[in-house]
Amino acid sequence: MELSTIIKLRNNYFLFQEGSTMCVYDKEANLVKLKFSCAKAIDTYALNKELMMPHTLHWLQLQSYWSWLGVLVNRYHDLFEILISRDLKRERARLELSEIIARESYAENAEVLMDFSESTLVLYGLSRTNVAIAEAVSDMNYRNIIFINREELAEAEDIEDETGIYKDQDLLKSKKEILQRYYGQKRREISILDLGDMKKLAKMDKCFFVIENNELSKEELLSMNQFVTEHRKVAIFFQMQQEQLVFGPLVIGGESTCLECLEHNGLFEQYFGRKSVPVDSVFRYMLLFLIKRTLCYVKEDDLFILLGDVQIPMNKIFKINRLTMRGEFDYIYRDAECNCTIAV
């Protein structure tokens, strides 16, 4: 192609970076089409906006990212659209309209199909927090809601909480039996699966796991993380600590940073090495909001929105201070030696 050739990235492609890896995501096929090494950290939001605009090859060759973009242009012609001069006015008008509407930039402005009839929600453990989550999503038509039974007994912190499920007379009784009785009386269909039967979920499609680090051992957390990555499931990890709520990472098996990546990078203890405390009523509402919001944007059809939304903890961990209620997030990166990366 001549230097005067005008090209742009096709509308169905989107670039994002995971550590030292650049990925090309196909929004129509809902998959990562291409991965390649890119050691330099790049603002992919600005990069995507730039590549979606028409530019000559001459202009592109002057940019710092041409060292790898030139390879894409030469080897993967289908990623780019060649424009002629009379297309520029139409394309410029389309881009300006997109900027005004900004539907692909902000998840809050996107129309999400609220149909969960083909999805299963898996809640790890029978904690009062998980019971509250199950109650909060009762209006979201999940195919099934499954609790994982870890042989827990009702403790003092569970009794007479906001859900009202665990009563005084239930102290030190089996949570599994209590929940079976409660949902039986309510005639609500939920399932309780024993921890030893977890393998039954390995082949079940469209499963989303909610995993609270509520006094779980490091080994148990990493074991659940391994299950999620090995079977390419989706899971959100979180923990209520004395000083803050740690929300994330959102683990998409084989596609995003996981707990094992944190362990390899010496960061596991920084985020999950502190003692858990019960989720108080104020933070429970915030937590339920964060979880329900995440559930809306992790469905397969909405994965592009997820990748472009800074308010989703994919490759990030949110930290919300209990005293000030102020939030911040840390970027976290995949480790090249992690099993979740090697398995891809």
Tell me about this structure:
- The protein has 344 residues and is of the alpha/beta class.
- It folds into two domains: 96 residues; 223 residues, 3-Layer(aba) Sandwich (Rossmann fold), CATH 3.40.50.720.
- It contains twelve helices and 14 strands.
- The strands form three sheets. It has an eight-stranded mixed sheet with strand order 9-8-7-10-11-12-13-14, with helices on both faces. Strands 5-1-6 form a three-stranded antiparallel sheet. Strands 2-3-4 form a three-stranded antiparallel sheet.
- β10, α7 and β11 form a beta-alpha-beta unit.
- α5 crosses α10.
- The protein starts with 5 loop residues before the first strand and ends with a helix.
- About 2% of the residues have low confidence.
Low-confidence stretches: 100-107
Largest sheet: 8 strands, mixed
Tell me the domain tally.
Answer: 2
* Architecture per CATH nomenclature, i.e. the level-2 architecture of the largest domain: 3-Layer(aba) Sandwich
| CATH class type of the largest domain | Alpha Beta
The whole-number mean of residue pLDDT values reads: 85
Describe the global form: elongated
Please tally the β strands and state the result. Answer: 14
